[in-house]
Automatic annotation (TrEMBL):
<dbReference type="InterPro" id="IPR016856">
    <property type="entry name" value="QueF_type1"/>
</dbReference>
<keyword id="KW-0671">Queuosine biosynthesis</keyword>
<protein>
    <recommendedName>
        <fullName>NADPH-dependent 7-cyano-7-deazaguanine reductase</fullName>
        <ecNumber>1.7.1.13</ecNumber>
    </recommendedName>
</protein>
<feature type="region of interest" description="Disordered">
    <location>
        <begin position="1"/>
        <end position="22"/>
    </location>
</feature>
<keyword id="KW-0521">NADP</keyword>
<dbReference type="InterPro" id="IPR050084">
    <property type="entry name" value="NADPH_dep_7-cyano-7-deazaG_red"/>
</dbReference>
<keyword id="KW-0963">Cytoplasm</keyword>
<feature type="active site" description="Thioimide intermediate">
    <location>
        <position position="50"/>
    </location>
</feature>
<dbReference type="Pfam" id="PF14489">
    <property type="entry name" value="QueF"/>
</dbReference>
<comment type="pathway">
    <text>tRNA modification; tRNA-queuosine biosynthesis.</text>
</comment>
<comment type="function">
    <text>Catalyzes the NADPH-dependent reduction of 7-cyano-7-deazaguanine (preQ0) to 7-aminomethyl-7-deazaguanine (preQ1).</text>
</comment>
<feature type="binding site">
    <location>
        <begin position="91"/>
        <end position="92"/>
    </location>
    <ligand>
        <name>substrate</name>
    </ligand>
</feature>
<dbReference type="InterPro" id="IPR043133">
    <property type="entry name" value="GTP-CH-I_C/QueF"/>
</dbReference>
<comment type="similarity">
    <text>Belongs to the GTP cyclohydrolase I family. QueF type 1 subfamily.</text>
</comment>
<dbReference type="GO" id="GO:0033739">
    <property type="term" value="F:preQ1 synthase activity"/>
</dbReference>
<dbReference type="InterPro" id="IPR029500">
    <property type="entry name" value="QueF"/>
</dbReference>
<keyword id="KW-0560">Oxidoreductase</keyword>
Amino acid sequence: MSDTVTPKFLGENSPLPASPEEAELDYVPNPRAGQLYMVRFAAPEFTSLCPVTGQPDFAHLVIDYAPGDTIVESKSLKLFLGSFRNHCGFHEDVTVGIGQRLFDEMKPQWLRIGGYWYPRGGIPIDVFWQSGAVPEGLWVPDQGVSSYRGRG
């Protein structure tokens, strides 16, 4: 990685953005450009709000991607995901929206997101999105999150 690249949020006092629209994702050059490899981020305590009741919704998000020329800086991703705390959105919109924004801005070779949502109204909802076919030769392990089974 170039010595001239300085991530915007690392080492800085960075308040949580008020909304996902206000959140700024930061991308830095891929230190292994030209290599095919996968990066995984897990957010096991993700929250957003139900657009109907305003009550909190909880999910375990898993984001996998094969970098292109850039990688997402992890603190900016953390702030972006945290900005959903006061955002109202259906599970489908939130999960797919996160994946599409990362894909559109970062331009990885491939990206997928799994949103494993805890029950709302007694029904767990899992939402999955990916940018396209998995690149040939990319090792893509299982996301490792079981579907909700309740207690026991």
